[in-house]
Amino acid sequence: MKHQERVQTLIECLPYIKKFNESVMVIKYGGHAMVDQGLKEKFALDIILMSLVGIRPVVVHGGGPQIGNLLKDLSIETRFVDGMRVTDEKTMDVVEMVLCGKINKEIVSFINHHGGKAIGLSGKDGNLIFAKKMLYYKSGDKGSTPEPIDMGMVGEITDINAGILENLIQGGFIPVVAPVGTGKGGETYNINSDTVAGKIAGAINARKLILLTDTPGVLDKTNNLISSIEVKDAERLIEDGTIKGGMIPKIRCCIDAIKMGVRKAHIIDGRKEHALLLEIFTNQGVGTEIVGN
User: For the chain, which domains are there?
Assistant: First the structure.
């Protein structure tokens, strides 16, 4: 890149740096960006740069593939229902070990190694995330009665203790959250990381929710990227089958966050180097934004 092009890039960033100063943004970190060594480094650098220019990032991470690999190594059978992992007690032990003991600390280490000020916690720390056992009903054929499914220790969020995160943010820390919650009896629950990110974004009045995925964003029926969607249109695209499969819960998560007061949600391609910075600090962005009506 020529010197003049570098200068132009910096100038393009300036209004966004000013606009987002002191803004809280929740980033769901997952997919290939968590596996590729080079992308791990770049993600850490993106988070640090955001912090240094005045943005207050909160990271929520997943870890499904890593959990699956360890379960396989331990010969623990895994069963999925509609893409959700049925979590018995043995599986929950592995989930907590991988999410809280390995992945969370690795992300914190990457950020801190490069000069950031990250602190790791799970939803159990300080009762950050309260949850209850999920009651799940699997839809059968059209007209049939939904079948109740015991998902084990899969939880749904009942409350977020926003004060913990707000205190950390005010102290200049970058919270890194593992998606594990606690029940009223002290039991541990495995919670979908997209859902955790969305609920946290709403609870702490984040300006943006950003989901890193392994897709360019939301695609239309001809596989072209849809750069911006209003909530009402997102509902229609789900109904007509344009948005389908694993993208549906991500869109639902974004819609819920916006209804809780988050200004914009973004679904971006975490496989692209510095996708976070490109989405936040450039005119074009790199993924799909979901906005209120």
Answer: 17-291 (3.40.1160.10)
